[in-house]
From TrEMBL:
CDD domains: LuxR_C_like (cd06170)
Biological process, per Gene Ontology: regulation of DNA-templated transcription
Name this protein carries in UniProt: DNA-binding CsgD family transcriptional regulator
Domain of life: Bacteria
The species this protein was found in: Psychromicrobium silvestre
Length: 435
């Protein structure tokens, strides 16, 4: 081997020894990190250059889990989307910012960087002070953050269907909980106004009632706020009990007697959006009914046939509830948004009877000639049993539902098939091949 070659090898070996292997390994770990671990990997990678008590990523690419966090549990457990969004709005494009910001409650020192293409935000809390001599470390943090932000976008784009379904479900749940908070505010304010306008209470009683209602409302608001990121299904009995609790203060001051007919306790769990919509619909119907003259009693009943939540609300007024009233039209739109159906039977001098059907699952497409009837799955089953000549009691026993539920479905079948009797419904079913 020549002297020149030997000398070149020595220089090459020396150069290899100078390669920053810890940094390269950190980059490799960051590039391979699953979404659930990317905050921890990024914190491990940045810690040698800028030490921090916690690292928080806020990205709208991951709608299901917009926050990714690592570090001090006291910080990562309390930091909120509102705080991160407010901080992000103050930052310029990709320019590191060092200062104080409200994170996890109090003002604390932070280092914040924004990724321009995705508008994702990186926050390092309580970073060690750095001066001019630490610019190289800050540049490395910025470089590593760029890798992490790009990898988040790539991983979300390549995510399996199960992740996308979970993410979209979480987004829908946040919207639902926000709507529930709005409805709770509305109920509380309406109840407070009812108490203040009540002629049956003196000033001391009104103050005591309003104080009690406000305290309970605040507790419930905080409870709902804590559920924003949860995906929930409510047992039908629990959802109905929440309805009863929601309406109790309002009915206390209205002078209207409300009778609650509970659903079977072993009924199928309700999807969160169905449970929330059902409570809001019943509350809206109750408010519309008590505005009528001579209404002294309202009955609300829930039932579940395994595929639908069945709601019935009836008053004892003079039948003055107008199906085309703006508040009823708004409720009907809410029902239709869930592929449900609202029907009102107004009987002059005998009150109003409202029936609402809310499917628990998206409606399955129907095959054959009956698709044009727009029947739900349970309605089609009832029609098939009708076509076979079975009576309501037999149908109820076969399907494991109550006879009243069968009558409910038969009434809907008459409307959808545009017939006036069981004989006509059976003849029409036979003509379309149902036996």
């Amino acid at each position: 081997m020549s002297a020149v070659t030997s000398q070149s090898l020595k220089k090459s070996s020396a150069s290899l020894l100078e390669v920053p292997w810890p940094l390269l390994r950190a980059v490799e770990a960051l590039a391979d990190a699953p979404l659930s671990q990317i905050a921890e990997r990024l914190r491990d990678a940045t810690f040698p250059y800028v030490r921090s008590s916690a690292l928080v990523i806020f990205t709208e690419d991951c709608t299901g889990r917009p926050q990714k966090k690592a570090g001090d549990e006291e910080i990562i457990a309390r930091v909120s989307i509102a705080e991160l969004d407010a901080l992000r709005a103050t930052l310029s494009e990709e320019e590191p910012w060092f200062g104080e910001a409200e994170i996890a409650g109090p003002l604390r020192p932070v280092l914040a960087l924004k990724h321009a293409p995705s508008q994702a935000l990186l926050v390092l809390t309580d970073p060690q002070p750095f001066g001019q001599e630490d610019e190289a470390g800050l540049d490395l943090v910025r470089y590593l953050w760029g890798i992490a932000a790009r990898r988040i976008r790539e991983k979300v784009a390549d995510a399996p269907p199960s992740y996308l379904l979970e993410s979209r479900a979480a987004s829908a749940e946040r919207v639902r909980v926000t709507a529930e908070l709005t409805d709770l505010h509305s109920t509380t304010l309406e109840t407070l106004l009812a108490a203040l306008h009540s002629s049956a209470l003196d000033d001391a009683a009104v103050r005591a009632a309003v104080t009690d209602l406000t305290a309970k409302a605040l507790v419930r608001l905080r409870t709902l706020s804590d559920r924003t990121n949860d995906l929930v299904k409510e047992p039908v009995a629990t959802a109905f009990e929440r309805l009863r609790e929601d309406l109790r203060p309002l009915t206390r001051f209205s002078g209207i007697e409300v009778e609650f007919i509970e659903p079977p306790r072993n009924g199928r769990d309700l999807p969160g959006e169905v449970a929330h919509a059902a409570r809001a619909i019943v509350r809206g119907l109750l408010l519309a009914m008590i505005e009528q003259p001579e209404v002294s009693r309202v009955r609300t009943q829930w039932d579940c046939d395994g595929e639908n939540l069945l709601i019935n609300v009836r008053d004892d007024g003079r039948g003055a509830l107008a199906p085309d009233a703006p508040n009823i039209i708004r409720l009907d739109r809410r029902v239709q948004a869930l592929a449900g159906h609202l029907q009102i039977e107004v009987m002059p001098n005998w009150g109003a009877d409202v029936f609402v059907t809310l499917p628990l699952d998206p409606p399955a497409p129907l095959a054959g000639d009956v698709a044009g009837w727009n029947l739900g799955g349970r309605e089609l089953e009832v029609l098939q049993h009708l076509a076979a000549g079975q009576r309501n009691r037999t149908i109820a026993s076969t399907l494991g539902i109550s006879e009243n539920t069968v009558k409910f479905h038969v009434r809907n079948l008459f409307r959808k098939l545009d017939v006036g009797s069981r004989t006509e419904a059976i003849a029409l079913a036979h003509s379309h091949g149902l036996r």
